[in-house]
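Possible regression after last week's pipeline update?

I re-ran a chain I had predicted before the update to compare outputs. Posting the input and the new output here so someone can diff against the archived version. Not blocking, just want to make sure nothing changed silently.
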Amino acid sequence: RLRGASKIIGVDLNQEKFEIGKKFGVSEFINPTTCGEKKVSEVIKEITDGGVDYSFECIGLASLMEEAFNCSRVNWGKTVILGVEMHNTPLAINTYFLLRGRTVTGCFFGGLKAKSDIPILAQKYLHKV
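New output (post-update):
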């Protein structure tokens, strides 16, 4: 929300995490077990009219990294990999989508610059921003 997102969609098998997610700005929640035959990416594309501008994978499974990529909007969607993949599994991403403008990047610690960003975050937390 601080960056201007109109929708923040949380995805988890545990429905109770929606209440926790709301405290961090989650506005919608998808439990993959309730999607029927559809993939999560298909459901997200339906509710966002084509995909999200940014998707974040936080678990560390290659299959979920690919699914996060599939949630991103064609031509400009960005997927950020935060989870650490421990099984040495390669990603299967169609390079055609990369050529059309979608991107995948990794990020440690949210891209924070400890010296300058942590004091700012601490102030926001203290002032409940």
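Follow-up from reviewer: compared with the archived run. The chain has a mean pLDDT of 92. Marking as no regression found.
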